[in-house]
Amino acid sequence: MSIAGAITALALLSLLFAAFARAGELKAGDLVITQAWSRATPSGAKIAGGYLTIENKGSMPDRLVGGAGEVAGKVEVHEMAVNNGVMTMRPLDKGLAIGPGKTVRLAPGGYHLMLMDLKSPLKEGDKVSVTLEFEKAGKVTLSLDVQGIGAQAPAGTEGAGGPVDMKKMPGHSGMKM
Hints:
The chain is mostly beta strands. The protein has one helix spanning about 5-20, and strands spanning about 25-30, 30-40, 45-55, 60-70, 70-85, 85-90, 95-100, 105, 110-120, 125-135, 140-145. About 10% of the residues lie in helices and about 45% in strands.
């Protein structure tokens, strides 16, 4: 193989690996959404959480204001917090702000999507389609990769697989979600 052929093959291989690295990445306007996942639910469960990371690469703020999905009757943006030892969970009626140059992580024990009135259980290995609505970026459809019931992060990342110890999280006491 000539040097030019080897360089061309190497360049094509680099592009292929870059495409695989970004396979879990979705762009919506200036927003980049990664690591979209959920947990499997037991039979009969009517709610589930959805988790993801949103990075705003633009110079203007945006806001996650809601969502929808065929698997759930309703999708809302929620916040879970522990104040004075009491866990609270509430919808964010005005949505979740994503400042310019900032990254917001929706994860167990904090901000998350609340999938309510589930029409069927979420099963490990499934992909669940949801459409998120942003104030500026508009609507974007993505798939949540369903992990095991006790997962704390998407597969292949630190923290995946086991239940979270809320006592180790800043500002949280012993509550689990």
